[in-house]
Amino acid sequence: MTKDNKPFAMTLSRRHLLRTAAATGAGLGALSVGGFTFVPAFAEDQPPLGTWPAGSQGSTVTIGATVPRTGPYAVQGEDELKGMQLAVEHINEGHPLIKKIAPKVTKGVLGKQVNLVVADSGAKPNDAVQEQQTFINDNKIVAMTGATSSAVAVALNKFAEREKILYLVAISGSNDTTGKDCSRYSFRQCFYGETAANAIGPVLLKAYGKGKKAAFMTPDYTYGHTVTKSVNDYLSQNGGWTMVTNQISPLGTQDFSQYLTNIANSGAEFIINVNWGRDAVLSIQQAKQFGLTPKMKMVVPYQIPFLAKEVGPELTEGVYAATDFWWTLEDKYPLAKMFVEAFDKKYGYKPEWGANNAYMQFAIWARMVSEAGTFYPPDVIKSYEKGETFDSTVGQVHFRPEDHQLVRPVVIVRGKAPKDMKDKEDYWEVTEVVPGAPLMQKPDAFGCSLGDYT
Amino acid sequence: MINWPNFVSQCFNGLVLGALLALISSGLTIIYGTLGVLNLAHGAMFMLGGYAGWVAYTHTGSFIVAIVAGALFVMLVGVVMERAVIRHFYTRPHEDQLLVTFGLGIVFVEAVRFFFGSLSKAVPPPPPLLGITPIGFMFYPTYRLALLGIVAVALLALYFVLYRTRLGMIVRAGIEDSVMVDSLGIDVYKVFMLVFGIGAMAAGFAGIVNAPVVSIAPDVGESILVQTFVVVVIGGVGSFPGAVLGGLIAGEIISITSMFNPGYAYVMLFVAMTLVLVVRPYGLLGTAGRE
Question: How many contacts (CB atoms, under 8 Å) link A and B?
Answer without folding.
Answer: 109
